[in-house]
Amino acid sequence: MRRSPTALILLSPLTAVALVVTGCGSAEPAAAAPTTTADCPAPPAAGFDTPDGWIGLAAERPDDVAFVVDTVDTGDTGDTADIPVEAHADRDQPLASAVKVVHLIAYARAVADGTLNPDEQVPLLDWQRWYAPGTDGGAHIAALNRLGIANDGISPFDPAATVRLDDMVSAMVRESDNGVPDYLRYRLGDDALRAAASAAGWTDFTPPTLVGTNLGALDPTVDRDHLWSLAQRFAFDADFRAGYAQNVTPPDEAAILEYYDRYGPRGSADDLARVYRAVADGSLGAGVDDVRRHLEYQSAPEPFTAMGFKGGNLPGVLTHGFEFRGDDGRTAVVVWLTHGLDAADYGAAMENLAAHQQLLIDAATDPAVAPRLACVA
After folding, report:
1. What confidence tier does 73 reach under pLDDT thresholds 50, 70, 90?
2. pTM
């Protein structure tokens, strides 16, 4: 049976989409940078189309940018050099889909203790109920296509089909599917998410709803302090789902930006960095191998042999979290959070993801980059 689409208002082009690293090679090493802020040169001009432009953006807009760069080089000698660089790392900011790394940890811990079976065959309809068409930049359908699940662009053709649970989870990371983290939250419960975050060093984690956040943006009349209840009603009440947001006027651009800044997933750059450190150095413990397997699906730049990442974006918000590991014991963690972008800047940032991601990779691989970032911290 072919299901009809729900009547949702598109958030295009301000949507939540997956982030993909398009260039994993290191840039040419920069000229030697000063090691004290007293000797810092003038920052580069702010912009979105070059790595230097993003450094300039951090200098020009300190209220909107937070980052952490943490490298540990044990190398062949066993010597450890820890060079952390931080800017506004403890400030609470929007995280967008970067928060999904916590859901991934909760899943991996549930697999480790036997609560979940990665080979479980989940009815596609149990995944589909958490999908709000038109609100995810095409992530869900892209995931169905990658997994070979025939669909009409909204729903699978075969309503009786199933999908392997571990493959669903891969869609949360690779395509940034929004339904999977809400499915995991519903199935595992908020305590499991808080425990997962705590195991990675994030002690005040507030479980978010990705679906509920996007639904709340469509209708300014809903109670936005109860977005999780909204998401669950949308998932399980067919009549409500079919008629949701049909006769409302969506907020204007300024209201949309303010909404996502306030109601989207939140945390600090330091919160996210602690999570990635626990993954990189193995201190996460139970489930770390499964977390790495899902995050580290792209090749790593030298001198590392593994690179894991999860990014996110919502209107006005762009976020990244990276962890790097080497066979010689070296690790690196890079987290960057940007918010407060107007529609034009947000569009420019999304068009130049490769430049931003290259800066973050260079920060982990080129020793000259961290001191340059320290100059704008």
Report:
1. low
2. 0.90
